[in-house]
Amino acid sequence: MSNEDQSKHSSAETEPRGISRRNFLGATAVTGATALAGAAGLGSAVMTRESWAAAVKESSQKIHVNPGELDEYYGFWSGGHQGEVRVMGVPSMRELMRIPVFNIDSATGWGLTNESKRIMGDSAKYLNGDCHHPHISMTDGRYDGKYLFINDKANSRVARIRLDIMKCDKMVTIPNVQAIHGLRLQKVPRTKYVFCNAEFIIPHPNDGSNIANLDAAEQYTMFNAVDGDTMEVAFQVIVDGNLDNVDADYTGKYAAATCYNAEKATDLGGMMRLERDWVVVFNIPRIEAAIQAKKFKTLPGSNVPVLDGREGSELTRYIPVPKNPHGLNTSSDGKYFIANGKLSPTVSMIEIARLDDLFADKLKEPRDVIAAEPELGLGPLHTTFDGRGNAYTTLFIDSQVVKWNMEEAVRAYKGEKVNYIKQKLDVQYQPGHNHASLTESRDADGKWLVALCKFSKDRFLPTGPLHAENDQLIDISGDEMVLVHDGPTYAEPHDCILAKRDQIRPRKIWDRQDPYFAETRAMAEKDGVNLDTDNKVIRDGNKVRVYMTSVAPTYGITEFKVKQGDEVTVVITNLDLVEDVSHGFCMVNHGVSMEISPQQTSSISFVADKAGVHWYYCNWFCHALHMEMVGRMIVEPA
Ligand code: CUK
Ligand code: CUA
Ligand code: CA
Description:
By secondary structure, the protein is mainly beta.
């Protein structure tokens, strides 16, 4: 089937400049793709041009959020290798906020302030990150709005964001592994574990002692669980092959992860050698029992329990699936783990109810848990759900989202003649993740779907060789998907998550007792300073602590003296009680900048290495006299 046929009804509305732009990645995006079989045909009747235009008009009206009105959904977007999380309003697709996490942020002082550096810990030295998978904590399979967790592939970290203040409050580096990629949460009974996959296979120990003969060294990667409450690593499980994406089930018992490198190869050709790789399923109660029974080891440099989950272990099962699978998604009805084929035009539906038998060795072979393996199109990467029995899978190579029915796919697998494909919608272009509203919870409501397209090509005004990506909003509330919005985004939102707005309960101003700045408060107490009232300079050897309050439009201290070479810490408490009156502190020519929101205490340290007069100013516009909110640091020459 040609692209022209497949895009029949959507091309008129979404591709006014023709569809010739669609093909450029067809054969080259994924090596070996040309060898793949063709896509299955369309199931539903194609709408007439008139009814399509009417549907687009109706859906487009739904996304218009009038000035002064609020969006129905919060969206949390990963910022990819830009390192931050972005908060969006959906369906307007307006960007509401950015939450710096694995990056440095000049506006808020993330990565510069003492509070943020304490949270980043040893990894504060890294100025880069690469986040992919943002997920909201759950209780009984429903978003509880407490935390958002996200991975950092670049520096093997996991971070937690407190959704009441929308700031990162914990960060942990996973030991003994490289590149934390897939990350999903335990859904039931609650998010006790944050499951995260380390992608790359490395030698153990990885200290250079075995590089003369790497072939003889023991090499593996590990599945990891972080305790969502303490953000300490709870356990690690050694696996065969490598690990890509992961998800957990709705019983609390199982997590499953895709592996694209069963070959344990170190190059592209080698990683595609086998016709099948696998999904590895982890038995969480058995892992917990093994830890209780002290059946684990520890690796040098950490005391995390490390268990052996390689083939033959009681803790895991390996289910062969076609070549180089990618996304792993639990259907919102709790029935299936769905592994997305990538180099195979299929997805593999693993029936979760049969996993007990698989672990009890009651099945003839692991693939007996496959309920269906529907053929969907070229390059299936990720699948999302509408809560009405339909699944939506991105087809990277075809540049489409395919809507298909899960139970019909199961019937077709059993030999019944039924066309499970409901619709294929062109998206622009090369989608990675897609994500439907509330899809990772029992509450999947089938209203909106976001397709996160890696390429925008000519959908937007040109911005030089580097193009925006394109996060497209699709109305899935009716029988047909309708594309309603093109959303340009900066590198690179791999994934997003949508929650109902009443599931997130942010604070309006800070609580003075907030643990976020508890250590700064403790330091003040030691200095005999009351943060809520005092403006004081404390000298302690060559360390100088400047405590001041701020009330729009003045700092409590407008002049302080230090000596050249002093290590200065400025601590500011914003006494304003009015919502939205944030102050800033910027010391000119010192690389010093931070946010102090109402009732917040923030602190930042620097060396006063230049003698003379140095102005500081408020850099968050707070008052008609904001420009006058200034002060001077006078530095005596050494
Ligand atoms: S991965 Cu990026 S498109 Cu990191 Cu979730 Cu599939
Ligand atoms: Cu305070 Cu601007
Ligand atoms: Ca492979």
